[in-house]
Amino acid sequence: MMIDQPAPIAPEPAPKRKPPVSHIPRALAELKRRGYVAAVVERRAWLNTTVDLFGCLDIVGVHLGHGILGVQVTVGGAHAEHLRKMLGEPRLAAWLRAGGRAALWSYAKRGPLQHYELREQVILIGDMGVEAGPALDSPRKLAARERAQAKRAQTRLRLSPPPTLH
Predict the structure, then answer these.
(1) Rounded CA gap, 42 and 20, in Å?
(2) Inter-residue contact 57 to 82 (CB < 8 Å)
(3) 104 near 123, Cβ under 8 Å?
(4) What per-residue confidence (pLDDT) applies to 145?
(5) Which letter does DSSP use for residue 162 in this model?
(6) Residue 108 C-alpha from the chain's centroid
(7) What is the reported pLDDT for 158?
(8) Consecutive sets of 10 residues in the chain, 166 residues long: mean pLDDT of each?
(9) Helices and strands (DSSP H and E) totals, the chain
(10) Beta strand residue intervals within 21-114, DSSP E
(11) Half-sphere exposure of residue 107, counting CA atoms within 13 Å on the CB side?
(12) In this structure, which topology does domain 24-131 adopt according to CATH?
């Protein structure tokens, strides 16, 4: 007589990790909806590292009526961190002074249906904590500028009249 034995239980597969969500396609679609011609300008440096244009721009869009817009795209929880990074970037200050516009877009799930909602913050040159200019130059140019300033200072000292004694 054979006794029925329960079938062996297969181990449960490990839960699959969701790949990180990229909001770049969502932002590109939004720019297109607003009438921009846009392209991704960040590049992959190696495995999981990306390099942004000017250290902080992921997408650049062009619009005939609104000009050029650089957008940094992130998740909602990293908005403040990315804002600090953008405000401290001298290359972004140069971008703004040259007439470009910049914005920080973050996406977070909101509402009862948990749809992604866009939070948009425009970056203005008055918000920047850095100056555009010498910080953008190479070390060689900076050294040459310092030598020229020192030479001008010496020339001024030689040209100034000697003090008079009374």
Answers:
(1) 17
(2) no
(3) yes
(4) 72
(5) P
(6) 18
(7) 60
(8) 67 69 87 94 81 90 93 90 90 90 91 86 80 55 74 64 63
(9) 4, 7
(10) 37-40, 43-46, 49-51, 59-63, 67-75, 101-110
(11) 16
(12) Trna Endonuclease; Chain: A, domain 1 (3.40.1350)
Q: What is the number of other CB atoms lying within 10 angstroms of the CB of residue 72?
A: 27
Going by C-beta distance under 8 Å and a sequence separation of 6 or more, which residues neighbour residue 65? 35
Scanning the structure block, which residue is given the tokens 């869009």?
Answer: 61
Q: What's the length of the chain?
A: 166
Residue reference for tokens 């140069």: 94
SS3 content of the chain, % helix, strand, coil (to 5): 35, 30, 40
What is the b/e burial string over 93-128, where b = at least 16 CB atoms within 10 angstroms of the residue's CB?
Answer: bbbbeeebbbbbbbbbeeeeeeeeeeeeeebeeeeb
Give the tokens for residue 22: 């990229």
Q: What is the pLDDT of residue 37?
A: 95
- Cα–Cα dist 50/106, whole Å: 17
Contacting residues for 11 by C-beta, under 8 A, at least 6 apart: none
